[in-house]
Every structure is written in structure tokens, then in C-alpha cells.
Design goal:
- The complex is a heterotrimer of chains A (353), B (308) and C (297).
- Chain A contains 8 helices and 20 strands.
- By secondary structure, chain A is an alpha+beta fold.
- Chain B has one domain: Orthogonal Bundle (MetI-like fold), CATH 1.10.3720.10.
- Chain B is globular, with a radius of gyration of 24 Å.
- Chain C folds into 2 domains: 71 residues, no CATH class; 173 residues, MetI-like fold (Orthogonal Bundle).
- The two termini of chain C are 44 Å apart.
- The chains are: A alpha+beta (353), B mainly alpha (308), C mainly alpha (297).
- At the B-C interface, helix 1, helix 3, helix 4, helix 5 and helix 6 of B face helix 1, helix 2, helix 5, helix 6 and helix 7 of C.
Chain lengths: 353, 308, 297
């Protein structure tokens, strides 16, 4: 089921009649059968967007299509969606089985068929053995699976997940995200999954949609967005450790950071923001950047360097280099920059130049 | 959808409660305000002689029993509330600190809450019986002479003392349970911290327990005041409709009793208005003391943390 | 400093002794207090089983070696207590059912539904909680007269007069609303996505989750009826329509002369006994409910 969002806008008005634009003229198409990560910092409008797709919130403006069907004014129960909440929202007084059966009751599915479907979906998510437990008797990860099973049992056209992993501890989170990936592949349901964790989104999404202040900043396959951020926000939001940001300038086709010449470009001469990924540095005796290393941390095959910014000695930036280079704190080294790991942005608009 | 107002549906759900509340709460409030401004309202004939702002209140104050009723009500309130709040605070702290049999004691202390006020009032009356009661027997053990607490010709003071014992006894259960649940909500780490600092037990009680429990103490004090101002059934339980020991009728009359007294005379012109005026006076007293209470405790109640 | 450290961690024996001393003190205080609480009950039960001669013995007999059951029969003869109890059970049953239903619906509307004036109406209800009931009683008495429930009273109209005015309670609405509001919103959203109607959500999710509170309300309301005295006295036109408190008071509202204390206490015990049994059976709900009902917010 392809989901088309046109000009979607949500304005909240509080009691004092102040308006907050949560989602601002969002236009996006979500391809059928894919797992899409809706990613952004908290308050960026991603959950609001999800709730509007679910029908729980009514858009102030704009339209939502499921395939060719305009569902903008269709109530949530008629949209054929499954929704999983951050806190799972399991009915505490019902067993796992009763929880999973609950949506089918509303659809008036005959009891034997409902039981069969519940068991099948429980087996799919790996909780087939726990049908008679109450939610409190389950671990966080198991509760999460019950919530997914309950959302999937009615065979929705779209599966929506609101921060589904944020209540789990680190290990379970890794495990569960693989699990979500697997379930999505096996069912082939178009899935939208909201998160503020870029690593989580990048690891399992077919595509990510990056949002900030209610506006879509970039959309694409995770690696593609990482490799080609179209704006400063995208560049900064993706990647750990985060991208290094410098104030530089373009002068006669040269990218200059302080006095160092980092490369060439056809952008016209102006002040710019230069973003360089930590892995974009290379130790190179002929490199243009002469810097002092303050701190060295070697983990496995990589060495992370905390380097004093040559243009501003109060600032530090990070570089990740091959562990083969032996560098110790206090060393002065020469660095060159990999051109495809360096991006130039307009300091005013943040757009990539 | 979620933000949509479901007005019609909501009113349907509210309707049963709202209809009843309108008839039996809201309308009576307005009607009481109306009754109190009618002059010589004759309920049987539905007639009255014009309007008045003060007359009905004057009747209340001129009622020969009013001063007695007000004195009794105030005395009951200002003795029973502080005594029962303090006592129940201590008992609940003991109860909370006892290592074993907590449930057993809790059950016993709760018993006074689940009794019939009339039945247990009668039991108290007999406890205080001059010749055959337990109280005088106990006094005898320590060499004191028997006192005529509630019998024929008992003094107002003796009867009032007996009544107060009953009122305090009856009001402890609820407070103990509420304080206990408040104490159980206090984070143990405050006590651990205090112990590490070698704080003495009495100091822990004054400086940690009471402040952390203060929102609850405040709430209980306010509701107890409101409740105690309405004392009446306790008097009936111990002394019957006579409202005092035999030979000293109405010695323990209370403000609420005056309302029902007037209501019992509902056929007499002006009686209903007097009842309404009395009830309004009672409300005014309650309101004033609630406000004073709120004012006093404003600086002493600690809302942050502690008792959740 | 060293002494303090030792006091805290070092001398275990001393700590242990302190603990035992303190527990003994607390235990003693609690036992003394328990005796004070128990005495009126003991006195009631003791007297109920005494013969008339034993009652009027001075100093009083504090322990019976032989129980005398005849007082209960005598009390039953003095007044129809079974009838009063029956009336109380019936009134209690109907007013409680009515209260629970109206309370659940109203609390649901306040806790879950979104409608114009919700907060204003709720504040209005809360603000009436401080007004003494006597203000309502005056007009309510006139109202039940107006409804024809007083004149030529039949058992039915007497029951109507005793139950209808008490079929809802602002305090219980407030109390249940608090419980309802603790249910996470997401449960409601999840139910909405699955096409659950509001009524079904109330029935299948909110009521079961808030059941402990609803049980508490049921018990408190029923116990309230068992204690009711003033209103039934006001609206019942015939003694046999009265409730237990009225029956008890009327039967022993002597004006002069000697009270048959043994019969009076037997009657009091008859009236108290069912309450005590209910309490001991439902102790858990009652204690928890009452404790929580005193916690604001």
C-alpha cells in the first residue's frame, strides 16, 4: 500500500489561543511494502505525522492517500492500520491472547478463525508460548511483540510504530529491531516507524524521512542520505560521532579553512559552513591541515583523535583514522580531507552548495 | 477523531448523574438561598409576607438553643480534631514502624470505621454508666469516686467529656489509614539519610515525617473540621433524640440539630426559612475555618516530593 | 566521628538491642491502643450475653463463664429488627446500584470524553463538595413531598424517597475519575484504531482496570446506608419502613426509667454484626479504598 501525503499541515491551538505548527505542508510518498523510518529530534512533528496517518489526529490541511483512496476523513478504525505505541498500550487485565483477539472482536471475526489467526500471528512474532500470560508477567521485549502481534492480527494495510524501541534496554533494542525488520519482510506490510534514534532508523529502514520543525528535510535510503546530505541539518543529524562543522570560505574555487586549502569547488566565492565526517580525514604528511592531537582513543581497528581546531584553539573536532597510524596525544600531524566526505553549506540557509 | 468534541455523547453519559445532582444538589442550594430571604414562609399554603435579608438569621441567633448549639459544635470540633489528628499521627507512625503484625493491628484500628454510629453510641453510653459501666469501674481501681457521666442529672461537662471520647474514638480509624498509606509512600532513603546523620527518632519525626506528610495532614485536618462541624448523629447515638443526659435535655445540642429541629416544625410559618438560615450559618462557619486553615498551612505544607 | 561510625556499622549487638527495645515500645503502645479500640465492642458483646441480673451488678462482671442468648430474642420482640435489616439491605442495594452506574458514566465522561464546558462543570461539582448536606436536606425533603413519596406512604414510595436522592455522589465521581485518568491514553487510542466504540472501551477496558475503585465505592456506599439515620428518620412515615439505625434508636429511646441494657446491646450487636462480617470478608478492598479516598489529587 503506497501512502501519499499531500500538503499535510497540523496546527495545534492551546487554551491561550497560541498556535503551534507541528507539521508544515508536508509532501511525501511512502512506497508500498517498504519499512520507512520517520526520523527527527523530539518535537519535530514525526509523531504528529504518524497520528495523522493513523487517523487519530485530524490534519488542519492537506490530504492523505492510501493507494488511490483518499483517507483524510476516514476514521481510524476504517483505515486498516495497525498501531504500536511506545508504551505498548497492552490491556493490563487481559491475557496475551485476549489482547491479540480484541481487534478481531470488533471486526466480528468468527471465534475459531480469530483464535487461529491470533495463534498464527503470535507464532510469527515469537510469543506463541505466552498466550495465557498477563502483560505484567512479560518482559519489555515480549510486551513489545504482543503489541506488534495485536497490531498485525487484523491484517492491516499499513503498520505504524511510534518509538517502538525506546522503552527497551540497549541489548533488547538491537534484538527487537532485527525482529521488526524480519516481521516486516515476512508480512510485506508497508511500515512506518517513528524514532529519534538515527542509528536505529538507519540500521533497519529501507528509506528514512528526516524531519525538523514540521518540515521534511530529506528523504532517501539511509546510506544515500548519509553520503549526500542536502542540508546542514541532515548532515548533522546522521552519523556517530557527528559530523565536524567549521566556518570556512570559498575563495577563487578553493575551499579554505583558515589558511589551509582543503580542495577545489565550482561554488562562487563566499563564506561557507564546511562539514567533514570524522572518517573523512587521512593522515597525510603532505596534507593541507597541520593540527595538534589532544587525545587519542583506539578501539579495535579505528583510532579516534580529538584534535584542536587550527582556526579556533578553543574548539575540538574528531577524526577517525586507521589504527595502523601510530599517533599519541600531543603529536602534531598533517591531515588531508577525502573530498566525498566533505560538504559545503550555505551559512544562512543551511542548504548544500 | 481525538480532538473532536463529542458533546452529545458526553451529555448522554453525564445525564443520569447530572439530572440527579440538579434535582438534589444544585436546585436545593438555590432554593435554600431563596427560602432564607422569604418572610414568614408558609410551606403548607405556599404563601409568604414579602422578602427579608436578615430576619431569618435573626431568628436563628435568637433561638434559645443557638448559643448552646454553637458552643457545643465549636467545642466538639476544636477538641476532637486536634486530638484525633495528633493521636492518629502517632499511631500510624508506630504502626508503620512495627516489624510484625501490621495487618492485624490495621484490622483492629479500622473497626470503628465499620460500625453503626447509633449502635456503638449506645455502647459508649453504657460504658459511661454511673453504677454499671466500665469507665467508673476502672476509675474505682485507681481509687477515684464514680462520676455521673451520662445518667440522670449529669452535668453538661461530664456528658460533653463522654461524647468527646466517643467522637475521637470514632474518628481515628479513617485518619490512621490515610496517614499510614501516606507514610508508606515516603521514600525510605530520607530515613536512611537521617540515620547516617545520626538523627534522633524524635527529630526524625518532627523534621522529616511531619513535613513530608504535611499535605495529607492538612487535607485530613480540613476535612475533619468540615465533618466535625456537622456533629449530630454521635449525640443521637449516645443520648438519643433528647440530645443530652436525662434531666438535662438538649445540653449537647449542635448546630445541625437546630436545622432538623426547624425542619421538624416545617408546618409552622417561617420554620423552613429558619432551617435554611441555620444551614447557611453552618456553611459560613465551615467556610471561614477552612479559609483560616488554608491560610495557616500555606507556609507549613511542603508539597514537593515525599508523600505522593 | 569514630563513635558515630561505630554506632552505625560497628556494634551490631548494640544495634540489635536498640531495635528490640524500640520494637517492644512500639508493640506495647499498639497493644494498649488496640485495647482502647476494642473496649466498646467488647462491652457491647459482653452485655449482649448477660442476664438482666448480671447487667445490674456493681461492680460490673467483666468476663462471662456462661452465655445467655435470650437477649437476642427479646430484642427481636422489642422491635422488628429483621425487618429493619431487610429494609436496609434493599435500600442499600438500589442506592448502590444506582450510584455505581451514574458514577461510572459521569466519571467516564469527565475522564475520557472531550466536550464543551467539561472543566467548568467539573469545577462546579467539586465546589459543592464543601457545602454541608443540611442545606440540601431542607429542599430535598420538600421535593420528595412534592413527588408524592411521603403522603399516604407505601413501602414503594418510602423506598423511592430513601434511594433516589442518593443515587449519585460527587465524591465518588471525583474518586473514580482519578482512577480512570490513570489509565494511559494510548490504551484508548489503540482501542480506537481497532474500531472499539466508547461504550465498549468503557465496558471492556476501563471498568475492569478500575474495578478495585468501583468495588471500594460499592462497599463504602453500602456501608453508608447501613449508617444512615437522619434522612430515613425524616422521610419514613411509618416505623416499619425505617432502617436499622432508626429501628435501634426508636426501640431504646427511653424517656425515663431503666433501660434493658442487655437487650439494647443485643440489638446493637445484631445491627453491627453484618457490617463486621462484610468488613472482615472484604478487608483488603475496604482498607485500601478508604486509605486512597483520603489522598487528594
Amino acid at each position: 500500500m503506497e501512502i501519499k501525503i499531500q500538503n499535510l499541515t497540523k496546527v495545534f491551538t492551546n487554551k491561550k489561543m497560541t498556535e503551534t505548527v507541528a507539521v508544515d505542508h508536508l509532501d511525501v510518498t511512502i512506497p508500498s511494502g517498504k519499512l520507512i523510518g520517520l526520523l527527527g529530534p523530539s518535537g519535530c512533528g514525526k509523531s504528529t505525522t504518524l497520528y495523522m496517518i493513523s487517523g487519530l489526529l485530524k490534519p488542519t490541511d492537506g490530504k492523505i492517500f492510501f493507494g488511490d483512496e483518499d483517507v483524510t476523513n476516514v476514521p481510524p478504525e476504517d483505515r486498516g492500520i495497525g498501531l504500536v505505541f511506545q508504551n505498548y498500550a497492552l490491556y493490563p487485565h487481559m491475557t496475551v491472547q485476549q489482547n491479540i483477539l480484541f481487534p478481531l472482536e470488533n471486526l466480528k471475526v468468527p471465534r475459531p478463525e480469530a483464535m487461529e489467526r491470533a495463534q498464527k500471528i503470535a507464532d510469527l512474532v515469537g510469543i506463541g508460548e505466552l498466550m495465557n500470560r498477563k502483560p505484567v508477567q512479560l518482559s519489555g521485549g515480549q510486551q513489545q511483540r504482543v503489541a506488534i502481534a495485536r497490531a498485525l492480527v487484523k491484517e492491516p494495510r499499513v503498520l505504524l510504530l511510534d518509538e517502538p524501541l525506546s522503552n527497551l534496554d540497549a541489548r533488547l533494542r538491537l534484538q527487537t529491531r532485527e525482529e521488526i525488520r524480519r516481521i516486516q519482510r515476512e508480512t510485506g506490510i508497508t511500515t512506518i516507524f517513528v524514532t529519534h534514534d538515527q542509528e536505529e532508523a538507519m540500521s533497519i529502514s529501507d528509506e528514512i524521512i528526516l524531519m525538523d520543525f514540521g518540515v521534511m528535510k530529506q528523504k532517501g535510503a539511509p546510506q544515500e542520505v548519509y553520503d549526500n546530505p542536502t542540508n546542514l541539518f541532515s548532515a548533522r543529524f546522521l552519523g556517530t560521532p557527528p559530523i565536524n562543522i567549521f566556518n570556512g570560505e570559498i575563495s577563487a574555487g578553493k575551499i579554505k579553512l583558515g589558511k589551509s586549502n582543503l580542495g577545489t569547488t565550482d561554488v562562487k566565492s563566499q563564506n561557507v559552513v564546511i562539514g567533514i565526517r570524522p572518517e573523512g580525514f587521512k593522515v597525510d604528511p603532505k596534507g593541507p591541515l597541520k593540527v595538534e592531537v589532544e587525545f587519542v582513543e583506539t578501539i579495535g581497528r579505528d583510532t579516534t583523535l580529538l584534535i584542536i581546531d587550527p582556526t579556533d584553539p578553543t574548539k575540538r573536532f574528531r577524526g577517525i583514522i586507521d589504527a595502523d597510524y601510530k599517533v599519541v596525544a600531543g603529536d602534531t600531524i598533517q591531515l588531508s580531507v577525502k573530498p566525498h566526505k566533505m560538504f559545503i553549506f550555505d551559512p544562512e540557509t543551511g542548504e548544500k552548495l | 477523531m481525538l480532538e473532536d468534541k463529542s458533546n452529545i455523547k458526553a451529555w448522554l453519559y453525564l445525564a443520569p448523574a447530572l439530572i440527579l445532582l440538579t434535582i438534589f444538589i444544585f436546585y436545593p442550594i438555590i432554593n435554600a438561598l431563596f427560602l432564607v430571604i422569604l418572610s414568614d414562609y408558609n410551606y403548607l399554603q405556599g404563601t409568604w409576607q414579602g422578602f427579608t435579608l436578615t430576619d431569618n438569621f435573626v431568628y436563628v441567633f435568637r433561638n434559645q438553643n443557638f448559643i448552646q448549639a454553637l458552643t457545643n459544635t465549636m467545642l466538639i470540633t476544636f477538641v476532637s480534631v486536634p486530638v484525633s489528628v495528633t493521636l492518629s499521627l502517632f499511631v500510624s507512625v508506630w504502626l508503620n514502624s512495627v516489624a510484625k503484625s501490621k495487618g492485624f493491628f490495621q484490622t483492629i484500628f479500622f473497626l470503628p470505621y465499620v460500625t453503626n454510629a447509633i449502635a456503638i453510641g449506645m455502647a459508649f453510653a453504657f460504658l459511661f454508666n454511673r453504677n454499671f459501666g466500665l469507665i467508673n469501674t476502672i476509675l474505682g481501681w485507681v481509687g477515684l469516686n464514680p462520676v455521673n457521666w451520662v445518667g440522670l442529672g449529669a452535668t453538661w461537662g461530664n456528658a460533653m467529656f463522654s461524647l468527646l471520647v466517643y467522637v475521637v474514638w470514632g474518628s481515628l480509624a479513617f485518619k490512621i489509614m490515610v496517614f499510614l498509606s501516606g507514610l508508606q509512600n515516603i521514600d525510605k532513603q530520607y530515613y536512611d539519610a537521617a540515620r547516617v546523620d545520626s538523627t534522633k527518632k524524635g527529630r526524625i519525626f518532627r523534621r522529616i515525617t511531619v513535613p513530608l506528610l504535611s499535605p495529607m495532614i492538612f487535607y485530613i485536618t480540613i476535612t475533619s473540621f468540615i465533618g466535625a462541624f456537622k456533629a449530630y448523629t454521635e449525640v443521637i447515638g449516645m443520648f438519643g433524640e433528647r440530645l443530652g443526659p436525662p434531666g438535662n435535655d438538649k445540653a449537647l445540642i449542635t448546630v445541625v440539630a437546630l436545622v432538623y429541629d426547624a425542619l421538624d416544625r416545617s408546618g409552622v410559618p417561617g420554620a423552613l426559612s429558619e432551617a435554611a438560615a441555620t444551614a447557611i450559618v453552618l456553611f459560613a462557619i465551615t467556610l471561614i475555618f477552612t479559609l483560616i486553615n488554608t491560610r495557616i498551612s500555606k507556609n507549613r505544607v511542603h508539597y514537593a516530593g515525599g508523600a505522593k | 566521628m569514630a563513635a558515630q561510625v561505630q554506632n552505625l556499622y560497628g556494634n551490631e549487638k548494640q544495634l540489635r538491642r536498640q531495635f528490640i527495645l524500640r520494637q517492644t515500645y512500639v508493640f506495647t503502645m499498639l497493644i494498649i491502643f488496640s485495647i482502647i479500640v476494642i473496649i466498646p465492642f467488647y462491652w457491647m458483646i459482653l452485655t449482649a450475653f448477660k442476664t438482666e441480673a448480671q447487667v445490674f451488678t456493681s461492680p460490673p462482671i467483666l468476663w462471662l463463664t456462661e452465655l445467655n442468648f435470650s437477649n437476642f430474642g427479646a430484642a427481636m420482640n422489642a422491635a422488628p429488627f429483621l425487618r429493619y435489616m431487610g429494609n436496609t439491605v434493599v435500600v442499600s442495594f438500589f442506592s448502590t446500584i444506582g450510584t455505581v452506574i451514574t458514577t461510572i458514566f459521569a466519571a467516564f465522561a469527565f475522564a475520557r470524553l472531550n466536550f464543551t464546558g467539561r472543566d467548568a462543570i467539573f469545577m462546579l461539582l467539586i465546589s459543592t463538595m464543601m457545602i454541608p448536606g443540611e442545606i440540601f436536606v431542607i429542599t430535598n425533603f420538600l421535593t420528595v413531598v412534592e413527588f408524592g413519596w411521603i403522603k399516604d406512604q407505601t413501602y414503594t414510595t418510602a423506598l423511592l424517597a430513601m434511594t433516589i436522592p442518593f443515587m449519585t455522589s460527587i465524591f465518588y465521581i471525583f474518586f473514580l475519575r482519578q482512577s480512570f485518568r490513570q489509565i494511559p491514553n494510548e490504551l484508548y487510542y489503540a482501542a480506537k484504531v481497532d474500531g472499539t466504540s466508547d461504550f465498549k472501551y468503557l465496558r471492556r477496558v476501563m471498568i475492569p482496570i478500575a474495578m478495585p475503585t468501583i468495588i471500594t465505592i460499592t462497599i463504602l456506599n453500602a456501608m453508608g446506608t447501613w449508617n444512615a439515620y437522619i434522612w430515613p428518620r425524616l422521610v419514613t412515615q411509618r416505623q416499619e419502613f425505617g432502617l436499622v439505625s432508626n429501628g435501634l434508636r426508636n426501640a431504646f429511646n427511653d424517656l425515663a426509667g431503666v433501660v434493658a441494657y442487655n437487650e439494647q446491646m443485643a440489638a446493637a450487636l445484631l445491627v453491627t454484626f453484618p457490617l463486621l462480617v462484610v468488613f472482615l470478608l472484604l478487608k483488603k478492598y475496604i482498607i485500601r479504598g478508604v486509605s486512597r479516598s483520603g489522598i487528594k489529587g
